[in-house]
Every structure is written in C-alpha cells, then in structure tokens.
Fold:
Amino acid sequence: MAKLHAAMSVEEFDDNYFYAAELKTFARQLGIAVGRRRKLELEALIREFLRTGAVPLAKPEPDRRSGESRDRLAAETTVRAYVDDRRTKAFLRDLVHARVPQLKDKSGQWYWLNEWRRRQLRAGQRITYADLGNRLLELMRSEGRLPRIPAARFNNFVTDFWTDPANKGKTRGDAVAAWECIKSVPGPKTYEAYAALEPSRGAGAGIEDGK
Structure:
C-alpha cells in the first residue's frame, strides 16, 4: 500500500485506501484544519491540495465547547449547537410525522440532511429545526432511492456485492472478505474492480480466493 505524501498524484491517492486517522494526521501535516471534519471532507480537501499545491482555506465546523448546552429541540429554535443523535432524529421524525403520519425512513436520509445543514451554515444562512424537519420531509418523500453516499465506499461495495445475482446465498462475511481483497490492491475500491481482478475472483466466483 502507498504511503501518504505531499508529492503523490490524485490518481495515486484515489487508487489506495487510507483510514480516517491516517487522513487526519496527513491533513494536519499539510496545514489543513481538521476539526470535526468527516472522512469524505478530508479526502476532498487533500485531493484539492494534491491537485493545486495550495492549502484549502475552507474552515471546519467548529467543535461544540465542553459543557456547552445543546440546542433546545423545538421547531422555532435556531440551529447552533446541533447534536446528531437518536434524540434529535426522533424529534425531527416527529415533525415529519405530524404532517405525514407513517411516512417511512429512507436510506441515506440523515447523511443528506446533515450535508444540507452544513451547506446552509457554511453559507451563513439562519436555519431552524422546522427547516430541518421540512428538508427531512422532502428527502423521505422523494421518488426512488436517494443518491449514493460518496464516502461510504465499503457500504457501496457491499450494496453492489448483494446486487450481483451470482452472490445469492453468500454471507456478510463473504462480502467483507471481498472488500478486504480489493482494499489491499491499488486501484478503484469498487465491486466492479473486484470482479475484474481475474476470472477466479469475478462476479459469482468463490470469495475464498480473495481472502
């Protein structure tokens, strides 16, 4: 596996797998503010540095100070100290169900709600929990599947693994073994790339070859 270094190409970066802790350490070495950034954000900022040679100026979401109280969960409350936990999610679901009872959750809704919230706050917009509830309602009522979560390469790989009819009857352990296989070699970390490694590891092949 390649090691992170400032002279690597974007292609080399994307063709290898790095853990969040490695990305945080490398980002700090480059002078990128880490804060509470998620892995996806760090990857995007590191790519920007590797492409331009300049340290991105984007600021991370500020940490909630120790002892600082969380937002009061009420529709009219302005979003300032948001906590992404079960309590907040239950409250936002209640706002949705007050308008559309029995509306079901949609895969990826919390990720895309958080993305929307962060974009609004970065742009200096004032938003309330009612606004979050409205956005969640839009996501839950949207037609078809929500867009794939960009950072979740493992989740995307497993989804594609189960989509392949040749893997019917295989276990999650088989899917994880396949992921560990593709993660250990240079190149895209996708199921398509895994299936193309060699015939014995293609779609429908025994996962044992990839362990």
In short: Residues 153-210 form one domain. The chain has three domains: 1-63, 65-148, 153-210.
